[in-house]
């Protein structure tokens, strides 16, 4: 591994985060024409990177990010998707769940790294309401959240129903709630710990397709029993049609499902321990086989969705953004690459992770105007930088990966 390159990239990543830090928290990008808002998911991923690297100098911006998001919380408990420079919560894609999820995870990350008990005490009611709002999105009360279409981080892709990414984060958010109860008086901490276990079991049973000699091994899972006939029917349908898949399905809905690999969702599932050792190995072997980390780590999904595919939508053509190999539709995201590298470390593949870390560093060094732009995303075929420069979560994702390779451990809020 080129240690000089990976260390230089870590230093440059910190510089990017300094550019994005401000009195209201972390903006999504550090350019004048970038994203001036504090985005919940971007700011919280950035916070996780700050905590992983123990960047105490950026603690004020991390705290401010949580304050800004808590200040924009709705009456019902929704954390805003973003807050603009004037302090107004954004309304686009307002049905997204992951703002609340990352808000809870972010509080755990910051408290475990820096002991922010005062902030927890001040945000106690906000944490309770954020979790209550989430639990009301388990509309059939089976232990998993339901999402509107394109309402997660990939807000131009047709994820819907019980989404892998959202529900892995739900497991982590439930764990965070239980862990924070020791520091602040949160109600029903034991219940939320049980709910985390239940969600993990349900997610593994419903989203992993496995058969043995043509029999419905997945559909027979005890986690799909107990009065939820529709879930078992869906598992039977998926197993009969697919037999096996070496990854968690990206979403399942009403008698339908996505049949492609969500690289971020599967990487997070490995980090969270939802994928056991055997399934983690299957996922990583598959990603290696299809070149999900080529030319750089890592593509958002594989394979890309093309016109005529069931999950194709005409809105993918908006501004030519989400065409195959671009943006969420198979574009390369350093954020996703960082989580994949961390997942490889978590799965015991540290040597492979080190190789991918070097490739990730090379991606972060690229730019359209100059070197070290930490681009938002890159073209999935050519590897050319796209999107905004000096993207906070691209830098933070690199720092998470760098720390994981250096220590052999992954950040606790993600595991």
Question: Explain this structure to me?
Answer:
- With 415 residues, the protein is mostly helical.
- It contains 14 helices and 10 strands.
- It has a two-stranded antiparallel sheet.
- A hairpin with a 2-residue loop joins β1 and β2.
- The two termini are 26 Å apart.
- The model has no long low-confidence stretch (mean pLDDT 93).
Considering the chains and any ligands shown, give keywords for the structure.
single chain; 415 residues; mainly alpha; Glycosyltransferase; 2 domains; two-stranded antiparallel sheet
Question: Between the first and last Cα atoms, what is the distance in angstroms?
Answer: 26 Å
Helix content range of the residues, please?
A: 40-55%
- Compressed to H and E, one letter per element, the order equals HEEEHHEHHHEHHHEEHHEHHEEH
Biggest pleated-sheet summary:
2 strands, antiparallel
Q: Compute the gyration radius: what is it?
A: 20 Å
In spatial order, strands of the major sheet run 1-2
The CATH architecture name of the largest domain reads: Alpha/alpha barrel
Any low-confidence stretches, pLDDT <50, length ≥5? Answer: none
Portion in strands: under 5%
Tally the helices. Answer: 14
Query: What is the class of the largest domain in the CATH system?
Result: Mainly Alpha
Q: Give the CA-based shape.
A: globular
Structural class: mainly alpha
Strand count = 10
């Amino acid at each position: 591994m080129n240690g000089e390159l990976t260390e230089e990239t870590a230093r440059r990543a910190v510089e990017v985060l300094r550019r994005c830090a401000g009195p209201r928290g972390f903006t999504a990008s550090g350019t004048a024409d970038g994203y001036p808002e504090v985005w919940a998911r971007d700011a919280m991923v950035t916070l996780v990177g700050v905590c992983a690297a123990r960047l105490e100098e950026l603690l004020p911006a991390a705290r401010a990010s949580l304050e800004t998001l808590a200040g924009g919380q709705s009456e019902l408990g929704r954390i805003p998707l973003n807050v603009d420079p004037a302090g107004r919560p954004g309304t686009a894609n307002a049905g997204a769940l992951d703002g609340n999820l990352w808000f809870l995870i972010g509080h755990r990350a910051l408290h475990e790294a820096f002991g922010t008990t005062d902030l927890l005490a001040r945000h106690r009611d906000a944490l309770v309401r954020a979790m209550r709002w989430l639990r009301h999105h388990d509309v059939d009360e089976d232990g998993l959240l339901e999402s509107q279409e394109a309402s997660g981080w990939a807000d131009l892709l047709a994820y819907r129903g019980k989404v892998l990414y959202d529900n892995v984060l739900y497991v982590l958010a439930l764990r965070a709630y239980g862990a924070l109860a020791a520091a602040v008086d949160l109600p029903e901490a034991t219940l939320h710990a049980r709910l985390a276990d239940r969600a993990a079991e349900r997610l593994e049973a419903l989203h992993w397709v496995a058969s043995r000699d043509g029999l419905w091994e997945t559909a027979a899972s005890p986690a799909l029993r107990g009065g939820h006939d529709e879930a078992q029917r869906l598992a039977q349908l998926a197993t009969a049609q697919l037999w096996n898949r070496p990854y968690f399905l990206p979403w399942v809905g009403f008698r339908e499902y996505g049949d492609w690999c969500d690289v971020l969702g599967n990487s997070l599932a490995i980090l969270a321990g939802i994928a056991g050792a055997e399934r983690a190995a299957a996922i990583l072997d598959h990603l290696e086989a299809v070149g999900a980390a080529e030319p750089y780590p890592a593509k958002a999904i594989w394979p890309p969705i093309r016109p005529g595919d069931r999950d194709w939508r005409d809105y993918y053509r908006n501004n030519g953004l989400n065409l195959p190999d671009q943006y969420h539709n198979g574009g390369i995201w350093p954020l996703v690459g960082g989580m994949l590298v961390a997942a490889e470390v978590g799965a015991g593949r540290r040597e492979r992770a080190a190789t991918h870390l070097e490739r990730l560093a090379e991606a972060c060094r690229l730019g359209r105007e100059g070197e070290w732009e930490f681009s938002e995303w890159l073209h999935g075929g050519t590897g050319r930088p796209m999107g905004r420069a000096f993207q906070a979560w691209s830098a933070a994702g690199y720092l998470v990966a760098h720390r994981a390779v250096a220590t052999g451990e992954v950040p606790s809020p993600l595991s």
